[in-house]
Each structure stands twice: as C-alpha cells, then as structure tokens.
Amino acid sequence: MVHIDKNRYKIYTWKNWMMLHWIINPGLAVNDLILRQRVPKLSLLDKTIDKPRVERTFIPCPHCNTLHDGRTWSTQNGTAFKNWFGLYCKDCGGVIPCLTNALSFIVLVVTFPI
C-alpha cells in the first residue's frame, strides 16, 4: 500500500468530479474502448511545486510505490493511446489500476461471450 503525504499531495480518486466525469460520460466510452486511453484510479497533485498542473501530477504504482510523472502516458510522449491492457509501471512491471467508463463496462459485459 502506498503511503501518501496528504500535506504535500492532493489526492484524486473516483470521487473527484473530473474522475467521475470519465466514468459516467457515455461519449468517453470511445476513448476507453477504441482509443484505449486510460485514467488511473489514483492521481496525486503536488501542492508544493509551483508549476503547471500537468507537471505536478503523479501516478503511484501500488506494487513498488514508485511515483510516475503524470505525462508518462501522454500524447507528449506518444503513449496516450493503445494502452490495451492498462498502464504498467516501468520499474516493476505491475499493472496500475485504471477507471472504466460505465458504458464501456456495459459493452464489455454484453460482448464478453463473443
């Protein structure tokens, strides 16, 4: 389990409106199913750094506790799309849990037998 300093980081989970938007917006199912963009279940925003939001976002690996730069899986690095099997930690190879869009989940459940 990752220990997070709540004084240093603002924690974003599915309860945040931006993350909830990813889950409930049916239009984002295209991003989830076809483009294979992923949104991690847990994101951290460093409150101590005076830089743009994108440069202050970190994604923790639940397996090895490594904090990955949020831009690791971005269009800037050419890795925003085609994450077919999820996000992976570059240090330990573990899977970083991601959110699933509600409509995507329904489509996957209905088409599972196929």
Which key terms come to mind for this protein?
four-stranded antiparallel beta sheet; alpha+beta; 4 helices; globular
Helices, strands, pairings?
Blueprint (H helix, E strand, L loop, with lengths): L8 E4 L4 H8 L4 H5 L9 E4 L6 H4 E4 L6 E3 L17 E2 L6 E2 L5 H10 L3
Antiparallel strand pairs: 1-2, 2-3, 3-4, 5-6
Q: Your description of this structure?
A:
The protein has helices at 17-24, 29-33, 53-56, 102-111; strands spanning 9-12, 43-46, 57-60, 67-69, 87-88, 95-96. It has 114 residues and is α+β, with helices and mostly antiparallel strands. The protein has one domain (9-111). The strands form two sheets. Strands 1-2-3-4 form a four-stranded antiparallel beta sheet. A two-stranded antiparallel sheet has the order 5-6. Strand 3 and strand 4 (67-69) form a beta hairpin. The longest helix is centred in the last third of the chain and has 10 residues, at 102-111. It is globular, with a radius of gyration of 15 Å.
Unreliable sequence segments? none
Strand content: 15-25%
- Name the helix and strand elements from N-terminus to C-terminus, one letter apiece: EHHEHEEEEH
Secondary-structure class: alpha+beta
Mean of residue pLDDT? 85
Largest sheet: 4 strands, antiparallel
Helix content: 10-25%
State the distance separating the first and last CA atoms.
36 Å
Label the overall shape: globular
